[in-house]
Amino acid sequence: MQPNLRTAFILLSLAFSTFRLCATTRLEAANGAIRIDVNSGSSAASEVVSIKEEDRWIPVLSSAASATRVIASGAPNIVHSCSINKVSRIPEGLSLHGDCSVGKFEERILLTSEADVLSVEMRFVPKDGIKIGSVEDRYDFVPGRRASDTLSSGPVDFVWSQNIKNEADDVIPEWAFKSPVVMLQQGEAFTALMPELSDRRRESLALDLDVTSDKLPWLSYGAMASQPYGHSYFRRSPENGPTALAGTIEYRYSIVASAQPSKLGYRRVVRRLWADEGHKELLRSNDLQQNVTRPDLVTFDDWRADTWVRYANEVYRGFDCGKQRCGTLVSNRNPEGKWNEPAPDAWFNAWFQTLRSAYGWYLYGQGTRNKAIEDKAESILNLALKSPRNHGAFSTIYLLNDKRWIPDDGWAGFSNDYHAFCMSWTAYWMLEWGRNLTPGRKDEILAFVRPYGDFLVKQQLASGVIPSWYDKDLKPRSEFRDFNAETAASALLLASLSEATGDRTYLNAAERAMDFIAKEVEPRQRWFDFETFLSCARKPFDFYDKWTAQYPQNNLATIQAAKAYLKLYEVTKNHKYLEQGTQVLDYLLLTQQVWNNPSFSPKLVGGFTTQNTDAEWSDARQGYAAVLLWDYYKATGKQEYLERAVAAARSTFAVAPWENWAHTGHLDEPGSLTGFHWGPGSAMTSVEIMSPTLGDAFINLQKKQGAGFNACSLRHVTVAGHSISFELETFPASRPVKIRFSGIDTDAKYQINWNGSHSSVVDGATLARDGYIARP
Fold first, then answer.
1. CA dist., res. 709 & res. 630, Å (int)
2. Are 240 and 154 in contact (CB under 8 A)?
């Protein structure tokens, strides 16, 4: 909406709303979707935010007196409530003036062009000589909570914070603002607080949330200092406070409140996060792929040379295995976590999936017509197919020096037990090899994978869950036997195996597995996988945040679930699975970064964090998420998924070769160097999968939309008949860009205009085959 139209909209809202100019003042959106009532000047002072459900106004947020609360340093247990002394109308809303005994405040509450959003601007001026510990706006959630707290039904229908609590005073600091929001929903009543992000570095802002400790659940945002402890938790600092600039403490945020489908209000926030932050951040980050320590690495061709030619050949080990040649791209890890005793190895697990990296390497060999690289890549498939089997189960780690297979990772798993997550992910990539790269070996691959599929069908419990770990006698381990979210990975494999064989036995098992995910995992978002409990953010298997009523969760399993739903949709054509998949995908996107946090050196937009009990930025799993988003774009045509896919695919390169950035959440430094696969290998594989369609930039003529993919930004795409126009910005500026198109009429001629000064006429057949080279 243009600024003058926005102003007219707001003035019209004010003119036609009903106000009392004495003690109660009301600000209401023009369409009656959200309103706030402010009471001032008496002991009954309060703020109440209401939403409209059908013809009724339902209070969702409230505060006794002002929503603002102040704590002075040195007195952490003394909360200074703030009174509202004066409420004034201003052209865009209301201005509240008040007193907090240790300072005064002015708060502006503004209508916006969004029907369910209020914008809030806070300015607090402390008294001279008073050191402030925190200033925050805290709102009670009026719909309240239930007394029950079961595995399937919590005190509220939905709750979200980027991090959950280990202690009562834990907060979500700006260090952890990946997709910054706190949310609550009961029934259709949904609300969220969303900080306004800035490219200025600010270290003393934080979100907070509590569901169970007080009479009503509450959420808050404001200026509060925090301090790290443990692996990645942050608690309120008892000694430090926010810095007053020019004697003033300021912060801004939005209140989102509206009636939303039960448990799905988060999707409203996911859309808003990308529309308001991620979209614009991606457009101005055409240098996203530039490496933070090696700035000479910028474009995908730069990274291809460094990853597939230099790095892959450095870590490749080939050896004879019977009548074949086997090989691996070594990670040089230690499966027992003895990091000072590395050894050459081959990992086929959920993180370090050598077969997936080899898939990307093979694609690069095809594209460059390099048969030697193709052969090396295929030698890794040869090795994977040599894994010793036990009634279908198979080992996933090979130790080159010992010439020995072991079932699983002993650091983040149980080395003597077979791990279904890792086996299923490996078997899935075997099927992908047979389907797309080596169709002549499909029968050989199915001969390996089918017995494993039969093993999963046999092990599946009546609930639909598939136990995670099995001992040498194939007895399920008690951990993750009756409940886990790793079942989604096996569902993906089973659905893919049904697709490859036509055997509905596997499809039925996959559907039962995802029915388990829908009924047992999704209601409380209990995304339990091995990484949730056994990686660096270790915790007991029964860990639970009693303050926010949230369970620990990790997004490796969420990625697999969204992928499994999409595969079920592709196999069955049942739109139910596509809808379930987009719901899970949107939940996953709450862990995607929507901005470049100025506290850190690399560009970070589009990257993914991992879980709600860890704090790293731009973890290598974003390579998995990129292809997932790309696949959902192809299934739905939603532009947001395309942009998020592009951002995710590019984000690893800023921080490579390390697995992530700011591993503990607040230090501006690289994470661990865990090898080829959890970094450049996984990222470049995603690029190789996506590049044939996306080129350097991509335009969908039917949808009249597009995106820059390779170190470029695409804006203002316009398609009118056979005329295509757009604006293109590249990094470096002089680089030619290949643009790919979908929806081309091969019999037509197209007029292409770009940047207002370049024009060409190209026949459709050429565009469809070769794309279009834009040369600055």
1. 12
2. no
From 302, 306, 303, 312, select the one nearest 677 (Cα to Cα): 312
Q: What is the CATH classification number for the domain harbouring 373?
A: 1.50.10.10
**Three-state DSSP state, 508:** helix
- Answer yes or no: is 271 within a domain: no
Query: What are the backbone angles phi and psi of residue 97, rounded to the nearest 5°?
Result: -115, 140
Q: Are residues 465 and 496 in the same domain?
A: yes
Q: Is the peptide bond before 732 cis (omega within 30 degrees of 0)?
A: yes
| Domain count of the fold of the chain | 3
The interaxial angle of helices 555-572 and 622-636, nearest 10 deg, is 30
**CB atoms closer than 10 angstroms to residue 325:** 15
Q: Are residues 635 and 758 in the same domain?
A: no
Q: Which of 641, 674, 694 is at the close of a domain?
A: 694
Chain position carrying tokens 């078997």? 427
Pairing of strands 705-708, 749-754: unpaired
pLDDT digits (tens, 9 = 90+) for 640-666: 999 999 999 999 999 999 999 999 989
What is the secondary structure of 224-236 as a DSSP string? E-EEEETTTEEEE
- Contact of 584 with 561, CB cutoff 8 Å: yes
For residues 409 and 421, give the distance between their C-alpha atoms in angstroms, rounded to a whole number: 12
Angle between helices 487-501 and 504-516 (to 10 degrees): 160
pLDDT tens by residue, 14-46: 433 433 444 789 999 888 799 999 998 756 669
In a domain, 9, yes or no: yes
Cα 477 to its chain centre, rounded Å, is: 31
User: Residues 644, 588: contact at Cβ < 8 Å?
Assistant: no
Name the residue among 644, 656, 655 with its Cα closest to residue 680: 656
Q: Do residues 647 and 731 both lie within one domain?
A: no
The C-alpha atoms of residue 525 and residue 537 are separated, in whole angstroms, by: 18
> What pLDDT is attached to residue 220?
98
292 inside domain? no
> How far is the C-alpha of 161 from the C-alpha of 211, rounded, in Å?
11
Cβ pair 449, 429 in contact under 8 A: no
Helices (H), ranges, 186-262: none
| Sign of the dihedral through C-alpha 206, 212, 213, 217 | positive
- Looking at 21-174, list the stretches that DSSP marks H as alpha helix, in order from N- to C-terminal side: none
* Upper half-sphere CA count for residue 736 (Cβ side, 13 Å): 6
The reply to whether 295 falls in a domain is no
* Stated pTM of the model: 0.95
Per-residue model confidence (pLDDT) at position 19: 39
Measured distance CA(674)–CA(358) in Å, rounded: 17
| Positions in the chain short of pLDDT 70 | 1-22, 42-45, 75-76
Which amino acid is present at 736? Answer: P
Alpha helix locations (H) across 130-227?
none
What is the three-class DSSP state of 491?
helix
For residue 58, the cross-strand partners are 51
Q: How far apart are CA 404 and CA 415, in angstroms?
A: 13
Identity (one letter) of the amino acid at 193? L
| 92 touches 201 (CB < 8 A) | no
The per-residue pLDDT for 42 is: 59
Quick one: tokens of 250? Answer: 């300021």
- CA of 311: how far to CAs of 329, 365, 495, in Å? 9, 15, 34
Asked which of 639, 673, 694 is the last residue of a domain, the reply is: 694
What domain range includes position 770?
A: 705-774
What crossing angle do the helices spanning 639-655 and 682-694 adopt, rounded to 10°? 140
